[in-house]
Amino acid sequence: MKTPALPRKRKAKWPVAVLGATGAVGQMFVRLLADHPWFELRELAASERSAGKKYGDVTRWLEGAPPPAAVMSRRVIACDPGVVTAPIVFSALDATVAGEVEAAFAHAGKFVLSNAKNFRMEPDVPLVIPEVNGDHLALIDGQRRKRGWSGAIVTNANCSATVAVVALAPLHQKFGIKQLFLSTMQAVSGAGYPGVPSLDILGNVIPYIADEEPKLEREMLKLLGAYADGEIIDATFKVSAHTNRVPVEHGHTICMTIGFEEKPTPEAAIQTMREWKGFAATEGLPTRPEHPLVVTDALDRPQPKRDVSAGGGMTVTVGRVRRDAVLDLRMVALGHNTVRGAAGGSVLNAELLAVNGALDSA
Ligand SMILES: NC(=O)c1ccc[n+]([C@@H]2O[C@H](COP(=O)([O-])OP(=O)(O)OC[C@H]3O[C@@H](n4cnc5c(N)ncnc54)[C@H](OP(=O)(O)O)[C@@H]3O)[C@@H](O)[C@H]2O)c1
Protein backbone atom coordinates (compact mmCIF):
# COMPACT_ATOMS: atom_id res chain seq x y z
CA MET A 1 0.00 0.00 0.00
CA LYS A 2 1.22 3.49 -0.83
CA THR A 3 1.47 5.89 2.09
CA PRO A 4 0.21 9.28 0.96
CA ALA A 5 0.02 12.06 3.52
CA LEU A 6 -3.28 12.78 5.21
CA PRO A 7 -5.53 14.85 2.92
CA ARG A 8 -6.83 18.40 3.41
CA LYS A 9 -4.29 19.38 6.05
CA ARG A 10 -5.77 16.85 8.46
CA LYS A 11 -3.48 16.48 11.47
CA ALA A 12 -4.44 13.04 12.80
CA LYS A 13 -5.91 9.85 11.37
CA TRP A 14 -9.69 9.46 11.42
CA PRO A 15 -10.80 7.04 14.17
CA VAL A 16 -12.92 4.25 12.67
CA ALA A 17 -14.83 1.20 13.90
CA VAL A 18 -15.85 -2.04 12.19
CA LEU A 19 -19.36 -3.40 12.80
CA GLY A 20 -19.54 -7.15 12.21
CA ALA A 21 -15.77 -7.33 12.74
CA THR A 22 -15.78 -11.07 13.48
CA GLY A 23 -17.20 -12.24 10.11
CA ALA A 24 -15.55 -12.90 6.74
CA VAL A 25 -15.85 -9.30 5.51
CA GLY A 26 -15.23 -7.86 8.98
CA GLN A 27 -11.91 -9.69 9.14
CA MET A 28 -10.93 -8.28 5.78
CA PHE A 29 -11.70 -4.79 7.10
CA VAL A 30 -9.50 -5.46 10.12
CA ARG A 31 -6.70 -6.59 7.81
CA LEU A 32 -6.99 -3.55 5.52
CA LEU A 33 -7.39 -1.03 8.36
CA ALA A 34 -4.78 -2.38 10.79
CA ASP A 35 -2.07 -0.29 9.14
CA HIS A 36 -4.02 2.26 7.09
CA PRO A 37 -2.32 5.63 6.47
CA TRP A 38 -5.50 7.70 7.04
CA PHE A 39 -7.73 5.61 9.34
CA GLU A 40 -7.04 4.37 12.86
CA LEU A 41 -8.90 1.16 13.72
CA ARG A 42 -10.25 2.11 17.13
CA GLU A 43 -13.15 -0.27 17.80
CA LEU A 44 -14.35 -3.74 16.85
CA ALA A 45 -18.05 -4.45 17.22
CA ALA A 46 -20.21 -7.53 16.67
CA SER A 47 -23.27 -9.28 18.07
CA GLU A 48 -24.17 -9.65 21.75
CA ARG A 49 -22.72 -13.18 21.46
CA SER A 50 -19.26 -11.68 20.96
CA ALA A 51 -19.49 -8.38 22.86
CA GLY A 52 -17.32 -8.23 25.97
CA LYS A 53 -15.02 -11.01 24.76
CA LYS A 54 -11.54 -10.74 23.27
CA TYR A 55 -11.56 -10.38 19.48
CA GLY A 56 -9.10 -13.28 19.11
CA ASP A 57 -11.33 -15.54 21.22
CA VAL A 58 -14.50 -15.01 19.18
CA THR A 59 -12.96 -14.71 15.70
CA ARG A 60 -11.92 -17.75 13.74
CA TRP A 61 -9.24 -15.99 11.68
CA LEU A 62 -9.76 -17.18 8.13
CA GLU A 63 -6.57 -16.53 6.24
CA GLY A 64 -3.02 -15.31 6.30
CA ALA A 65 -1.21 -13.87 9.26
CA PRO A 66 -3.61 -12.72 11.97
CA PRO A 67 -3.58 -9.03 12.92
CA PRO A 68 -1.20 -7.78 15.63
CA ALA A 69 -1.67 -9.17 19.15
CA ALA A 70 -2.93 -5.76 20.28
CA VAL A 71 -5.91 -6.15 17.93
CA MET A 72 -6.57 -9.81 18.81
CA SER A 73 -6.69 -9.01 22.53
CA ARG A 74 -9.05 -6.06 22.16
CA ARG A 75 -12.54 -6.41 23.66
CA VAL A 76 -15.37 -6.62 21.13
CA ILE A 77 -18.12 -4.09 21.82
CA ALA A 78 -21.81 -4.01 20.94
CA CYS A 79 -23.06 -2.50 17.66
CA ASP A 80 -24.63 0.37 19.56
CA PRO A 81 -24.05 4.00 18.54
CA GLY A 82 -24.08 4.92 22.22
CA VAL A 83 -21.10 2.63 22.81
CA VAL A 84 -19.06 3.06 19.60
CA THR A 85 -17.13 6.35 19.78
CA ALA A 86 -15.59 6.45 16.29
CA PRO A 87 -17.34 8.89 13.93
CA ILE A 88 -16.80 6.62 10.91
CA VAL A 89 -18.01 3.02 10.90
CA PHE A 90 -17.44 0.31 8.32
CA SER A 91 -20.34 -2.13 8.39
CA ALA A 92 -19.91 -5.83 7.61
CA LEU A 93 -23.16 -6.71 9.34
CA ASP A 94 -25.46 -9.52 8.46
CA ALA A 95 -28.38 -8.15 6.42
CA THR A 96 -30.88 -9.34 9.04
CA VAL A 97 -29.67 -6.60 11.40
CA ALA A 98 -27.85 -4.12 9.16
CA GLY A 99 -30.93 -2.02 8.27
CA GLU A 100 -31.86 -1.09 11.81
CA VAL A 101 -28.31 -0.80 13.16
CA GLU A 102 -26.92 1.29 10.29
CA ALA A 103 -29.87 3.71 10.46
CA ALA A 104 -29.31 4.12 14.21
CA PHE A 105 -25.66 5.00 13.58
CA ALA A 106 -26.55 7.53 10.85
CA HIS A 107 -29.14 9.11 13.21
CA ALA A 108 -26.38 9.38 15.81
CA GLY A 109 -24.30 11.41 13.34
CA LYS A 110 -21.94 8.63 12.24
CA PHE A 111 -20.67 8.11 8.72
CA VAL A 112 -21.64 4.52 7.79
CA LEU A 113 -19.89 2.68 4.95
CA SER A 114 -21.99 -0.42 4.44
CA ASN A 115 -21.53 -3.75 2.70
CA ALA A 116 -25.04 -4.95 3.40
CA LYS A 117 -27.85 -4.99 0.85
CA ASN A 118 -30.42 -3.13 2.98
CA PHE A 119 -29.93 0.46 1.77
CA ARG A 120 -28.27 -0.12 -1.61
CA MET A 121 -31.32 0.52 -3.76
CA GLU A 122 -32.73 3.45 -1.75
CA PRO A 123 -32.85 6.39 -4.18
CA ASP A 124 -31.09 8.75 -1.75
CA VAL A 125 -28.30 6.34 -0.82
CA PRO A 126 -25.12 6.23 -2.92
CA LEU A 127 -24.21 2.77 -4.25
CA VAL A 128 -20.63 3.30 -5.26
CA ILE A 129 -17.63 1.70 -6.93
CA PRO A 130 -15.27 4.69 -6.67
CA GLU A 131 -13.53 4.31 -10.05
CA VAL A 132 -16.88 3.86 -11.82
CA ASN A 133 -19.39 6.21 -10.22
CA GLY A 134 -17.63 8.15 -7.48
CA ASP A 135 -19.74 11.16 -8.50
CA HIS A 136 -22.84 9.40 -7.02
CA LEU A 137 -21.54 10.32 -3.55
CA ALA A 138 -23.20 13.67 -4.20
CA LEU A 139 -26.49 12.04 -3.07
CA ILE A 140 -25.42 12.43 0.55
CA ASP A 141 -26.66 16.02 0.98
CA GLY A 142 -30.18 15.09 -0.16
CA GLN A 143 -30.12 11.96 2.04
CA ARG A 144 -29.39 14.07 5.12
CA ARG A 145 -32.17 16.52 4.29
CA LYS A 146 -34.70 13.79 3.57
CA ARG A 147 -33.94 11.56 6.54
CA GLY A 148 -33.14 14.31 9.04
CA TRP A 149 -29.91 12.68 10.19
CA SER A 150 -26.53 14.33 10.44
CA GLY A 151 -24.65 11.14 9.63
CA ALA A 152 -24.81 9.36 6.30
CA ILE A 153 -25.00 5.91 4.72
CA VAL A 154 -22.87 5.04 1.70
CA THR A 155 -23.05 1.51 0.31
CA ASN A 156 -20.93 -0.65 -1.89
CA ALA A 157 -22.41 -3.19 -4.22
CA ASN A 158 -23.00 -6.92 -4.24
CA CYS A 159 -19.66 -8.63 -4.85
CA SER A 160 -20.57 -10.06 -8.27
CA ALA A 161 -22.13 -6.78 -9.40
CA THR A 162 -18.87 -5.03 -8.45
CA VAL A 163 -16.67 -7.39 -10.48
CA ALA A 164 -18.96 -7.24 -13.53
CA VAL A 165 -19.38 -3.47 -13.43
CA VAL A 166 -15.66 -2.67 -13.14
CA ALA A 167 -15.19 -4.70 -16.35
CA LEU A 168 -18.24 -3.28 -18.12
CA ALA A 169 -18.02 0.41 -17.16
CA PRO A 170 -15.51 1.47 -19.84
CA LEU A 171 -17.44 -0.46 -22.50
CA HIS A 172 -20.78 1.00 -21.44
CA GLN A 173 -19.33 4.53 -21.37
CA LYS A 174 -17.96 4.20 -24.91
CA PHE A 175 -20.26 1.79 -26.78
CA GLY A 176 -23.51 1.69 -24.77
CA ILE A 177 -24.64 -1.71 -23.50
CA LYS A 178 -27.97 -2.85 -24.92
CA GLN A 179 -28.24 -6.43 -23.63
CA LEU A 180 -26.25 -8.49 -21.17
CA PHE A 181 -26.26 -12.15 -20.16
CA LEU A 182 -24.02 -13.11 -17.29
CA SER A 183 -23.33 -16.31 -15.44
CA THR A 184 -21.35 -16.28 -12.20
CA MET A 185 -19.13 -18.84 -10.49
CA GLN A 186 -19.00 -17.51 -6.94
CA ALA A 187 -16.51 -18.44 -4.25
CA VAL A 188 -17.58 -19.93 -0.91
CA SER A 189 -16.18 -16.98 1.08
CA GLY A 190 -18.98 -14.95 -0.54
CA ALA A 191 -21.40 -16.76 1.75
CA GLY A 192 -19.63 -15.58 4.92
CA TYR A 193 -18.49 -17.79 7.79
CA PRO A 194 -19.24 -20.70 8.26
CA GLY A 195 -21.27 -20.35 5.06
CA VAL A 196 -22.11 -23.35 2.88
CA PRO A 197 -21.60 -26.77 4.59
CA SER A 198 -18.49 -28.50 3.20
CA LEU A 199 -20.44 -31.62 2.17
CA ASP A 200 -22.76 -29.48 0.07
CA ILE A 201 -20.03 -27.68 -1.86
CA LEU A 202 -16.97 -29.95 -2.17
CA GLY A 203 -16.96 -31.56 -5.64
CA ASN A 204 -20.18 -29.74 -6.42
CA VAL A 205 -21.80 -26.70 -8.04
CA ILE A 206 -24.94 -25.16 -6.57
CA PRO A 207 -26.97 -23.30 -9.23
CA TYR A 208 -28.79 -21.11 -6.72
CA ILE A 209 -27.77 -18.30 -4.36
CA ALA A 210 -30.75 -16.87 -2.53
CA ASP A 211 -31.81 -13.42 -3.77
CA GLU A 212 -28.55 -13.01 -5.72
CA GLU A 213 -29.84 -12.78 -9.30
CA PRO A 214 -32.35 -9.94 -8.81
CA LYS A 215 -29.83 -8.10 -6.60
CA LEU A 216 -27.13 -8.35 -9.24
CA GLU A 217 -29.45 -7.24 -12.06
CA ARG A 218 -30.84 -4.23 -10.16
CA GLU A 219 -27.57 -3.01 -8.72
CA MET A 220 -25.71 -3.04 -12.04
CA LEU A 221 -28.23 -0.61 -13.54
CA LYS A 222 -27.90 1.81 -10.60
CA LEU A 223 -24.08 1.59 -10.62
CA LEU A 224 -23.94 2.34 -14.35
CA GLY A 225 -26.60 5.05 -14.05
CA ALA A 226 -25.99 8.80 -14.24
CA TYR A 227 -26.16 11.38 -11.45
CA ALA A 228 -28.25 14.40 -12.41
CA ASP A 229 -29.98 17.04 -10.25
CA GLY A 230 -29.77 15.10 -7.02
CA GLU A 231 -30.85 11.72 -8.33
CA ILE A 232 -29.58 8.66 -10.18
CA ILE A 233 -31.04 7.85 -13.58
CA ASP A 234 -30.53 4.08 -13.88
CA ALA A 235 -28.97 2.55 -16.97
CA THR A 236 -31.69 0.92 -19.08
CA PHE A 237 -30.12 -2.10 -20.78
CA LYS A 238 -31.65 -5.56 -20.44
CA VAL A 239 -29.77 -7.88 -18.12
CA SER A 240 -30.21 -11.57 -17.32
CA ALA A 241 -28.10 -13.24 -14.60
CA HIS A 242 -27.42 -16.83 -13.55
CA THR A 243 -25.60 -17.20 -10.22
CA ASN A 244 -23.79 -20.33 -9.06
CA ARG A 245 -21.80 -21.27 -5.96
CA VAL A 246 -18.61 -23.19 -6.76
CA PRO A 247 -15.91 -24.81 -4.61
CA VAL A 248 -13.43 -21.94 -4.87
CA GLU A 249 -12.18 -20.17 -1.73
CA HIS A 250 -11.97 -16.56 -2.96
CA GLY A 251 -12.82 -14.87 -6.26
CA HIS A 252 -15.98 -14.59 -8.29
CA THR A 253 -15.60 -15.48 -11.98
CA ILE A 254 -18.23 -14.13 -14.36
CA CYS A 255 -18.87 -15.14 -17.99
CA MET A 256 -20.59 -12.35 -19.90
CA THR A 257 -22.23 -12.04 -23.32
CA ILE A 258 -22.87 -8.44 -24.32
CA GLY A 259 -24.84 -6.61 -27.01
CA PHE A 260 -23.98 -2.95 -27.72
CA GLU A 261 -25.59 0.13 -29.28
CA GLU A 262 -22.36 0.74 -31.21
CA LYS A 263 -20.74 -2.61 -31.89
CA PRO A 264 -17.01 -2.72 -31.05
CA THR A 265 -14.58 -5.25 -32.43
CA PRO A 266 -12.88 -7.37 -29.75
CA GLU A 267 -9.71 -5.36 -30.37
CA ALA A 268 -11.52 -2.04 -29.82
CA ALA A 269 -13.14 -3.37 -26.64
CA ILE A 270 -9.77 -4.55 -25.30
CA GLN A 271 -8.14 -1.22 -26.10
CA THR A 272 -10.98 0.66 -24.40
CA MET A 273 -10.66 -1.44 -21.24
CA ARG A 274 -6.88 -1.11 -21.22
CA GLU A 275 -6.99 2.67 -21.61
CA TRP A 276 -9.64 3.17 -18.92
CA LYS A 277 -8.37 5.03 -15.89
CA GLY A 278 -11.61 5.38 -13.94
CA PHE A 279 -12.98 8.37 -12.01
CA ALA A 280 -10.06 10.80 -11.89
CA ALA A 281 -10.48 11.76 -8.22
CA THR A 282 -9.63 8.19 -7.18
CA GLU A 283 -6.13 8.27 -8.64
CA GLY A 284 -3.48 8.11 -5.94
CA LEU A 285 -5.87 7.03 -3.16
CA PRO A 286 -4.15 4.54 -0.83
CA THR A 287 -6.39 1.54 -1.61
CA ARG A 288 -6.85 2.21 -5.34
CA PRO A 289 -4.72 -0.16 -7.41
CA GLU A 290 -2.66 1.37 -10.19
CA HIS A 291 -4.85 -0.59 -12.64
CA PRO A 292 -8.43 -1.23 -11.47
CA LEU A 293 -8.97 -3.26 -14.64
CA VAL A 294 -6.47 -5.50 -16.44
CA VAL A 295 -7.05 -7.42 -19.68
CA THR A 296 -5.03 -10.60 -20.11
CA ASP A 297 -4.17 -12.16 -23.48
CA ALA A 298 -3.66 -15.63 -21.99
CA LEU A 299 -6.18 -18.05 -23.46
CA ASP A 300 -6.92 -19.82 -20.18
CA ARG A 301 -7.16 -16.83 -17.81
CA PRO A 302 -8.45 -15.27 -15.61
CA GLN A 303 -8.43 -17.99 -12.96
CA PRO A 304 -9.16 -17.49 -9.25
CA LYS A 305 -6.06 -19.43 -8.26
CA ARG A 306 -3.75 -17.25 -10.30
CA ASP A 307 -5.41 -13.86 -10.64
CA VAL A 308 -7.55 -13.21 -7.56
CA SER A 309 -4.85 -11.25 -5.73
CA ALA A 310 -3.99 -8.89 -8.63
CA GLY A 311 -3.60 -5.34 -7.35
CA GLY A 312 -3.81 -6.56 -3.74
CA GLY A 313 -7.24 -8.03 -4.55
CA MET A 314 -8.53 -4.69 -5.91
CA THR A 315 -7.87 -5.33 -9.61
CA VAL A 316 -10.51 -6.99 -11.78
CA THR A 317 -8.97 -9.21 -14.47
CA VAL A 318 -10.72 -9.72 -17.81
CA GLY A 319 -9.86 -12.31 -20.42
CA ARG A 320 -11.18 -14.26 -23.41
CA VAL A 321 -12.61 -11.16 -25.12
CA ARG A 322 -14.03 -12.47 -28.39
CA ARG A 323 -16.87 -12.15 -30.89
CA ASP A 324 -20.23 -13.69 -30.10
CA ALA A 325 -22.59 -15.24 -32.63
CA VAL A 326 -25.77 -14.29 -30.73
CA LEU A 327 -24.93 -10.81 -29.36
CA ASP A 328 -21.67 -8.92 -30.03
CA LEU A 329 -18.95 -9.89 -27.56
CA ARG A 330 -18.11 -12.50 -24.93
CA MET A 331 -15.61 -12.20 -22.10
CA VAL A 332 -14.74 -13.44 -18.61
CA ALA A 333 -14.11 -11.24 -15.55
CA LEU A 334 -12.68 -12.19 -12.17
CA GLY A 335 -12.39 -10.23 -8.93
CA HIS A 336 -11.79 -10.81 -5.22
CA ASN A 337 -15.16 -10.88 -3.48
CA THR A 338 -14.13 -9.87 0.04
CA VAL A 339 -11.54 -7.28 -1.08
CA ARG A 340 -12.74 -5.56 -4.28
CA GLY A 341 -16.30 -6.78 -3.77
CA ALA A 342 -16.56 -5.82 -0.10
CA ALA A 343 -14.06 -4.41 2.43
CA GLY A 344 -11.55 -2.94 -0.03
CA GLY A 345 -14.31 -1.20 -1.99
CA SER A 346 -15.70 0.28 1.22
CA VAL A 347 -12.31 1.57 2.38
CA LEU A 348 -11.78 3.14 -1.06
CA ASN A 349 -15.18 4.84 -0.74
CA ALA A 350 -14.06 6.31 2.58
CA GLU A 351 -10.79 7.53 1.05
CA LEU A 352 -12.69 9.28 -1.74
CA LEU A 353 -14.98 10.91 0.83
CA ALA A 354 -11.88 12.00 2.75
CA VAL A 355 -10.32 13.81 -0.23
CA ASN A 356 -13.73 15.29 -1.14
CA GLY A 357 -13.97 16.96 2.25
CA ALA A 358 -17.04 14.95 3.30
CA LEU A 359 -15.23 13.64 6.39
CA ASP A 360 -13.83 17.02 7.48
CA SER A 361 -16.25 17.26 10.39
CA ALA A 362 -15.72 13.64 11.53
N1 LIG B 1 -18.64 -12.37 1.95
C1 LIG B 1 -18.63 -11.58 0.88
O1 LIG B 1 -17.91 -11.81 -0.12
C2 LIG B 1 -19.52 -10.34 0.83
C3 LIG B 1 -19.37 -9.48 -0.25
C4 LIG B 1 -20.15 -8.33 -0.32
C5 LIG B 1 -21.06 -8.06 0.68
N2 LIG B 1 -21.21 -8.92 1.73
C6 LIG B 1 -22.17 -8.54 2.79
O2 LIG B 1 -21.39 -8.16 3.93
C7 LIG B 1 -22.07 -8.50 5.14
C8 LIG B 1 -21.19 -9.42 5.98
O3 LIG B 1 -20.95 -10.62 5.25
P1 LIG B 1 -20.00 -11.78 5.79
O4 LIG B 1 -19.81 -12.66 4.62
O5 LIG B 1 -18.83 -11.19 6.47
O6 LIG B 1 -20.96 -12.48 6.89
P2 LIG B 1 -20.54 -13.31 8.19
O7 LIG B 1 -19.23 -13.95 8.02
O8 LIG B 1 -21.72 -14.16 8.48
O9 LIG B 1 -20.43 -12.18 9.36
C9 LIG B 1 -21.56 -11.53 9.88
C10 LIG B 1 -21.17 -10.53 10.97
O10 LIG B 1 -22.40 -9.92 11.47
C11 LIG B 1 -22.40 -10.00 12.90
N3 LIG B 1 -23.77 -10.11 13.40
C12 LIG B 1 -24.67 -11.11 13.17
N4 LIG B 1 -25.81 -10.86 13.85
C13 LIG B 1 -25.62 -9.71 14.53
C14 LIG B 1 -26.42 -8.95 15.42
N5 LIG B 1 -27.66 -9.33 15.76
N6 LIG B 1 -25.92 -7.80 15.92
C15 LIG B 1 -24.67 -7.40 15.59
N7 LIG B 1 -23.84 -8.09 14.78
C16 LIG B 1 -24.31 -9.23 14.25
C17 LIG B 1 -21.59 -11.24 13.23
O11 LIG B 1 -21.12 -11.15 14.57
P3 LIG B 1 -20.95 -12.45 15.53
O12 LIG B 1 -19.67 -13.13 15.12
O13 LIG B 1 -20.87 -11.87 16.89
O14 LIG B 1 -22.15 -13.31 15.31
C18 LIG B 1 -20.46 -11.14 12.17
O15 LIG B 1 -19.47 -10.27 12.64
C19 LIG B 1 -23.40 -9.16 4.70
O16 LIG B 1 -24.42 -8.19 4.71
C20 LIG B 1 -23.08 -9.65 3.29
O17 LIG B 1 -24.23 -9.80 2.49
C21 LIG B 1 -20.44 -10.05 1.84
Defining key terms:
362 residues; six-stranded parallel β-sheet; 12 helices; globular; binds NADP nicotinamide-adenine-dinucleotide phosphate
Structure, described:
With 362 residues, this protein is an alpha/beta fold. It is built from twelve helices and 14 strands. It has helices at 24-33, 55-58, 69-72, 95-107, 130-133, 140-147, 159-175, 198-201, 212-223, 266-275, 304-307, 339-356; strands spanning 14-19, 39-46, 77-78, 88-91, 111-114, 152-155, 177-186, 226-228, 231-233, 238-245, 252-260, 293-295, 316-323, 329-335. The strands form three sheets. It has a six-stranded parallel sheet with strand order 3-2-1-4-5-6, sandwiched between helices. A six-stranded mixed sheet has the order 10-7-11-14-13-12. Strands 8-9 form a two-stranded antiparallel ribbon. α1 crosses α12 and α7 (159-175) runs parallel beside α9. It is globular, with a radius of gyration of 20 Å. Bound molecules: NADP nicotinamide-adenine-dinucleotide phosphate.
